[in-house]
């Protein structure tokens, strides 16, 4: 009986930090719950279309992994298959629970906060950082702009930032144990790859020095390499859906790339200046950065290999995020650099590695001053939460403005009354907000011209002209996993229809399948076909190849098996 009581108390203590993280998340949600206002940032409409599409698939049971049948003006374009498909379906489920866009926004913010706090707490505990300090640093991480980037702008990299600490756990394993945990490495890398591909590259950048250290120190290098290749093999199985989709789509289609930033220097961080609300908020991030440098300079000899390596990696990412590098020259002379879009994205891994380094510093440099260190972390965290709340109140206040109440670049409003637009995001009719506010983002549209570089096609303008401006002329519905477009016509002639055609898109016009030679296309892949007088019905489907279908099943099966193995290992550790 006494043993059971001790077990309950012990388990209760383990849950207390999670309770603290939940409380911190609720406190950060208070500004929006109090004002009952929305935040619609630069990426909101794009991602809300993605999630609305998966929401409707889940609601109506019409599943289509590749083309958008509900979101993006029901245009049959491919987005989710190339952009975090699993997280897109998770957000569709959250939308199903929320029932309105406002409720979804609060719910998704809560999930991101909880993921961010708990994943950083887990990373710190794996590095043997004391419980209370791990909790305060985890709460502080929730206030940083790495996470607020989702909350305030609905930028999807915020979801990746929430999971990034968990993905960096193998760094601790490499350095402290000098080994490769196959399941851990494969799952952590696959998780971030399934979420945000660019962030997965940052994770691999952090892995490489840690693995090289483990390899250098290991006495069984052959075994280490063997386990590394096993992890890579398992990783490929866990992400097979991504590679299968990319192979199918890019093998047969030329796609418009995401936004190319022609002024990358302006989106790098100016380390010599500070502005409220930018990437250097809350102000505690600057204090922590100074402490990192002072700790390195003053205590290098006392630091463990993990502290040294993590600190140097953090400083590397900080430099990469800043204007210390000639980003304009690099983006002009090295083509793949432009894929990064915004150099400040390097500040996300810097933030995580900074907090991990400070946690290990506290163990190694402040053994006699632990209470002072923990107290200081608590004060900085509380100030950070206060500053973040202030920023949120300021951003939320924009919603009350009669104009410019949301991000408007490349955005079309089909409703002239601002109040009706706002109320649409509180309506249970989720299609209404996306009908009133439409954004002409052209990412991943199929390019049908050999005479011009896809990067030079003005996709925003063409998408508006060929899809958004034509919406009222066509009726669209989804039945039996098919997108059905109907319209009236006055003559038998060529007609541009607002639907995009990829290599494996299949069309049936007025009961007759259309061969590719019967079609012509606009530069951005919208269909040009011969309509008949009076009434027309176009059925649109996507026929993925068998190999791609196999990769989808293989991914699900691999995650299921890994989950069972992890559960079995956890039960075994508890029993022994």
Written account of the structure:
With 576 residues, the chain is an alpha+beta fold. It has a domain at 466-544: Immunoglobulin-like, CATH 2.60.40. The protein is 59% helix and 9% strand. It has helices at residues 2-35, 44-60, 85-98, 101-126, 131-143, 145-153, 157-167, 169-177, 182-195, 197-217, 221-238, 240-252, 284-299, 305-321, 327-333, 347-365, 370-397, 418-424, 430-436, 459-466, 546-575; strands at residues 411-413, 437-439, 475-479, 482-489, 494-500, 505-509, 512-513, 520-521, 526-530, 534-542. A five-stranded antiparallel sheet has the order 3-4-10-6-7, with no helix packed on it. A three-stranded antiparallel sheet has the order 5-9-8, with no helix packed on it. A hairpin with a 2-residue loop joins strand 6 (505-509) and strand 7 (512-513). Helix 1 (2-35) packs parallel to helix 17 (370-397) and helix 7 (157-167) packs antiparallel against helix 9. It starts with a helix and ends with a helix.
